[in-house]
Amino acid sequence: MKVVVAGCGTGGAEFLRHYSGDVTVISPSSYLYCQALFPAYLAGKVSEDEVKVDLLPFFEEKGIKFRRGKVEFVKDKCKTVFLNLKTLKGVSYDKLVLAVGGEPIHVEGVEKALTLNDFESAKIAKKRIERAREVAIVGSGMSGVEVAYEISGFCNVTLIEYERRILPGMCEKVSDVVRKLLSREGVKILTSCKVERISDTLKTSCGEFSFDEVIWCAGIKGKRVPGLKYGKSGIVVDSSLKATQNVFAIGDVAEVNIGDVATKTALEAERQAKFVAKAIKSGKIGKYKPFSTLRNPFAIMTFDDKAILVRGDKVLTGKPIYKLKMLVVRKFLKNFER
Predict the structure, then answer these.
(1) What is the pairing mode between strands 89-92 and 95-98?
(2) 322 in a domain, yes or no?
(3) What tens digit of pLDDT does each residue of 284-327 get?
């Protein structure tokens, strides 16, 4: 059976680690980046080499073929993924696993904002905020609050949240803890504030503001892949994470709504990848059950050597939690080092 995997981020890489067979990977880059370290990278606390692993030696060890490119169209009737529609350059498959990631949700002018959706975007963001004095961060999820803390040492930071409190997907206790922590670092927090347009100024329901840079951390949607059905937040999949009979979608690109709505996190991408690898390998397609959901949050957030562990409505803080997160991150990257 020929399996094609599009994308080698967290979801794609985890699938490859758990599946053995005839596999071809299609991706613009052979590097796996740990997005959990992007906030620290922006602040210059970790280097590029510390956040990435070149997967080529891993591919070679497992006999995985690598094609540098980007998916432009999927034609499942002829089981082909096209990399270039002008030349009809395509790759055939028996099963296709899409793990191509996400992009910012649409707001007028959002393309003007900095993002952290991939490492190239993070590199651009790092260079530009080093020259900035006033920075707005839109969205106060995990990435938003970590980035706000990390860059507050050299920028005046305003954190903007549409909901009535920061970290709205978690319990109020953790929102209060993180708000106090950010306030001590001089971060200005605006809640119940909707961003309406990004141009030379930032137009919001709270007024119009001027910033040197705007960083978009307000949530993402799956990248569009022509040829497949797209929903509100990504490619529509069934209870087995299948977009079609032969195509699976995992991670940020997928819209997973199976009783619970799966959050677009690295933890969820890893779980989906393992599920699909097992399903293809065994030929037994079961029902996937999301774990990391808005109803049952789980997260480890780091602020320098401080850290907060959230599990449901329980909140723990302390330096040992920071060490735990760094251990988890390093262990994840080490899985692919050769």
Answers:
(1) unpaired
(2) no
(3) 888 998 875 566 777 888 887 778 888 877 888 888 888 888 88
